[in-house]
Design goal:
The structure is a homodimer. Chain A is mostly beta strands and about 190 residues long. The first copy, chain A, has 4 helices and 13 strands.
Chain lengths: ~190, ~190
Amino acid sequence: MKKSLGAGTLAQPTPAWLVGTYDADGKPNVMTIAWGGICFSAPPCVAVCVRPGRHTFPAITARRGFTVNIPSQNLARETDYVGMVSGAAVDKFAVAGLTATKSTLVDAPIVNECPLVLECRLVRTMDLGAHTQFVGEILDVKADESVLAPDGHVDPLKLRPLVYAPGDGKYYGLGEVVGKAFGIGKELMGK
Amino acid sequence: MKKSLGAGTLAQPTPAWLVGTYDADGKPNVMTIAWGGICFSAPPCVAVCVRPGRHTFPAITARRGFTVNIPSQNLARETDYVGMVSGAAVDKFAVAGLTATKSTLVDAPIVNECPLVLECRLVRTMDLGAHTQFVGEILDVKADESVLAPDGHVDPLKLRPLVYAPGDGKYYGLGEVVGKAFGIGKELMGK
């Protein structure tokens, strides 16, 4: 018998990603999101959800683009910080010791310190209650060589992304390999 | 200098969740999704992305509801299996050894073996390319007592959710606590 916890956003895991934008003054800004995820394969798209009051909000609507920068565990403190303060009040890049490079594909900054970055062109917007969902088409993914496996794919154990747990309010690291997708379930086929 | 990997769905982490539905014959069905995530706080909503060809697709549009069932690591094989076969051809619950209880809130089955379940009423649909995004308002979250901390919150280290890594194609477990959200970044404030 399961216990009712009420209506809430208690799904796990969620990401901890940094959304990069340029504000109206051309200043690079970055905010943390946990509400979002990959939403389409073809074209490849990612959704990020932002409240209208955030400094990032008018930046995305004006520039029609953003980056999704995936921090490693060693950037947990910086990731947490840029989710708590407003780019309207402070230069988050400067305080957090982050540096920006302008994307050549979209009008948004890449966070150099994040080893994996998605460059996204705004293609859809959905309003619902307290948040707006921005869907970005992923025009390119760029990675530091340091997080690539010998065959060129992104190695999660090198990337070491943060995992956020709503309800618990903590960041976690990635654990051990459990199994291969489209693989470990095959033994149930034909049963 | 970052290396271009091309356009693709290479964000990490993504979830491995089981979407529960009843098909046109009233048979409970379940499929795995990695494309999705929490998308709004108020009202609490979760997005799941499904290709129109999937057996789950007409079930969600007809019943206007679904469940998001979060499997623990020990269900990795079952999670993988139900993502590879079609409920049009097989009874996935029976083959995977899963059992269903009808939700009292939405017209969809709860997967009893999953310790955390979100009961969702379909509120929005967004088509884009190969997938359709279904946004469900979370009417209730139900949990097994076994995954709750003494204070009643969901303990991720008891839940042990699967983490899927696109590009790598493997499921991972959750690792150690990295830090407290809205906490570890505070030392950068006022700098």
